[in-house]
Amino acid sequence: LRSFLGHMRLAKRRVASERSKFSRVHPEVVVGGLAITIMGACAKELPPPGILPDDVSPRVEKIFPAPDSISPGFNGQVLIQFDEPVNIPNGIERLIFVSPMERYLSDKGFSELKLEPLGGWRDNVVYCFSIPEGISDLSRSRNRTENPINFCFSTGAPLVDTRVVGTITDAMTGLPQDEARVIFFAPGDTTPYGAIADEEGHFTARSLPPGEYQAFGFLDQNRNLILDRDIDPHDSVALLVDRDSVPRLEFGLVPPDTTPPRLLRVQVMDTTTVRLEFDDYLINPLSQDPEFFISNSETGMIV
Questions:
Q1: Selection from 277, 275, 273, 284 nearest residue 263 by Cα
Q2: What's the average model confidence in pLDDT over 15-25?
Q3: Contact 141, 55 (CB under 8 A)
Q4: Could you write out the three-class secondary structure of 45-97?
Q5: Where are the beta strands (DSSP E) in 118-200?
Q6: How many distinct helices (H) and strands (E) make up the chain?
Q7: Long-range interactions of 293-301: CB distance < 8 A, separation 24+
Q8: 60-65 — which CB contacts under 8 Å span 24+ positions?
Q9: CB atoms closer than 10 angstroms to residue 136
Q10: By three-state DSSP, how is residue 237 classified?
């Protein structure tokens, strides 16, 4: 028994000695059966061996209802499914654009986004969605989608290949109006089809039912998705939408104004030129071919 206990004590001393040597050579020290890694101040975390860094943006794996499909009586949620977990911003429903222009509810999942209109789906209407770029994955790289996700589907109406394009600018400065909106109204139809301008002021409206429309370009000052003529700078134009042409519209937005311009002063520049100054901006004053008359103040005769 004494001999056996002696051998056990000797074996323990040898094991302790080997552990001490191992801890001086390797950064991992075994203490009480636990492996503790000694990290230096400048240590850099690396992915596990054999795993490459993720540098791929999230991709859309599924959209339901399918793009360009017709789903009569649809009453569920639109689903956008990604191929990996994603970080969908809070308030995404305020960032997306949908035609018809209504308020939409969002439901975010681990790798999906669900949408539905607050007042329910309209029958026989084409819905077009634009989900903005910038949705990121959960990797350390935070890869983001680089382009908007655009698609349309119908709740019964035929999908027609129509487009209306154009620009929206500030009529006074000529600068493009980012996020300005266009709303299209057809006689007898209350569906608010629409489009939204990008950072360069360009917009495209898709799949409008053929027919006559009154279109309004406006800045939605209070974010209520409708044109408030007493508040929102706006402009309007009439157009015809059909399958054979692509109307190009140009909106020059001006602030609401209920008073006509007043003549402030007249300045004679030379024998053939007179300068007229008004108290307000004039939008393309010669575009409607106005008539000017110059008369002799003594005789009343038109010169």
A1: 277
A2: 54
A3: yes
A4: CCCCCCCCCCCCCCCEEEEECCCCCECCCCCCCEEEEECCCEECCCCHHHCCE
A5: 126-131, 136-137, 149-154, 163-170, 181-185, 193-196
A6: 1, 20
A7: none
A8: 60/149, 63/151, 65/153
A9: 16
A10: strand
Is the Cβ–Cβ distance between 153 and 72 less than 8 Å? no
Instruction: Name the CA dihedral angle for 224, 226, 230, 232, rounded to a multiple of 10 degrees.
Output: 80
Residue 68 reports pLDDT greater than 50: yes
How far apart are the C-alpha atoms of 195 and 182, rounded to whole Å?
A: 5
Radius of gyration from C-alpha coordinates of the chain: 34
pLDDT at 4 over 60: no
Question: Which residues does residue 129 pair with via DSSP β-bridges, in sequence order?
Answer: 98, 151
Q: What gap in Å lies between CA 203 and CA 194, rounded to an integer?
A: 10
Residue whose pair of structure tokens reads 């939204």 in the numeric block:
196
At 9 the three-state DSSP class reads: helix
| C-alpha of 244 from chain center | 29
Strand-pair partners of 153: 127
Sequence-distant (6+) residues with CB within 8 A of 238 are 212, 213, 214, 215
Is the pLDDT confidence value at 260 over 80? no
Q: What is the spatial distance between Cα 218 and Cα 228, in angstroms, rounded to a whole number?
A: 9
Long-range contacts of the stretch 173-178 (C-beta < 8 A, 24+): 175/201, 176/200, 176/201, 176/202, 177/201, 177/217, 177/219, 177/253
The separation between CA 290 and the C-alpha centre of its own chain, rounded to angstroms, equals 42
Span 118-153, pLDDT tens digits = 999 999 999 999 999 999 999 888 999 999 999 999
